[in-house]
Amino acid sequence: MIDDLKPYPEYMDSSLPWLGRIPKHWDCLPHRAIFEEVKEQGHIDEQLLSVTIGKGVIRQEDLLAESSKKDSSNLDKSKYKLVEPGDIAYNKMRAWQGAVGVSRYRGMVSPAYIVQRLRGESRPDYFHHLFRTPGFTKEAERWSYGITSDQWSLRPQHFKMIYSCVPPLDEQELIVGFLRDFDRQVRRFIRNRRRLIEVLNEQRRSIIRALATQGTRTGVEMQNTALDQFPILPTHWEESRVKREFTNLDHKRIPLSTTVRGEMATREYDYYGASGVIDRVEGYIFDDELLLIAEDGANLVLRNLPLAIIARGKFWVNNHAHILKPKRGNIEYFAHVLELVDYRPWVTGAAQPKLTRERMMRVGIPAPPVEEQGEIVAAINNETGTLTEGIAKAKREIDLIREYRTRLIADVVTGKADVRHLAPTPGSEDLEEMVDELEPLDGAAGELDQEALAGEEVHADD
């Protein structure tokens, strides 16, 4: 189907750098002709909504459930704005980063958010996609004002002045139908790859557990231990704890906001969060080989991303990861062991899981002789190498299909590709089903906006 994509037969110049040429029969209109701002207030019993960079408009309870963020909305919600299904909402301080989308819910948003409603007959989900393209994000940045990036704001009066392309209504429906079907194919592909990753990860984890708890030497006598998660170990191994094997360096970590990182002139060094590198920055705190353990977030329970990560060289760490420096032993061995640990018994907070420094340092772990630790690491690398390569390959394929999907959506909604002859006849799907199908593809559950929001709190009143 995708191989049949061709340009439209005739084009015209939109005179807009972010759009370029558009099909000759499309309109190019200012937003004041397409939308009207909505400021309905006083609906204090409605559910609270958030506008995120990763997924557009979502329920705030879903955002809080899948991240380590906190609800900082005002107790007095009398001035919060009503959002109806089909409305476009955007965070005026983050529109230039892609925090915009159509709502499939009735709810309320912070007074700092802007709510727009279509004036005539148009498909809101068409504009949902248009406004989430890289091109529109750059246009929103151009129209945002402020002395520094953390003050940039896309005010309603400036949103009205932006021009967007507007296909005929029947063509909007065909475009949405095409994207819905294409999106289903992409989701099916990603689901299959995720299942493959789950199978490979389980096989890999089984091998690691056997080697990390039994060693590589045959005929070794085993014994019961006092360690809840490692109940049987070789008799000559030590029953240890994290605090005996590591020095904690949490006092040296420094969080940097998204705004501060965005204003850096150079980005030479890795910036670590709870589940690995989330950005690059111009400076570093550490020049060492250290083990990082996630401190907070749903991943402590869901385990969709690594929790024990080795950081080497020069790097920066924010306040969402514990920092451990080995006192003795093989750091790779202990990384494997700490990744095997189920941290739920040590985690506090149901809505906002957190592994405190004190609890983490008390976790019981095995400590084989140093020589054996090296043997175990070598055996793990040898026996899991093919599995690790297979996992990496599947992840790369997921990343590539996401990138392709982003490019294709931008080409279709701006008229660079004609899908009229490929699009299915619009069905009777309601808005919730349509937007759910057309939402940008995130990672597995628990990854929601983690990179975009790492080091930040959920400020409903930004």
From TrEMBL:
The keyword Transmembrane helix does not apply. GO terms for biological process: DNA restriction-modification system. CDD domains: RMtype1_S_Aco12261I-TRD2-CR2. InterPro entries: Restrct_endonuc_typeI_TRD, Restrct_endonuc_typeI_TRD_sf, Type-I_RE_S_subunit. One of its GO terms (molecular function) is DNA binding. The keyword DNA damage does not apply. Residues 265-385 form the Type I restriction modification DNA specificity domain. Keywords: DNA-binding, Restriction system. Belongs to the type-I restriction system S methylase family. This is Type I restriction modification DNA specificity domain-containing protein.
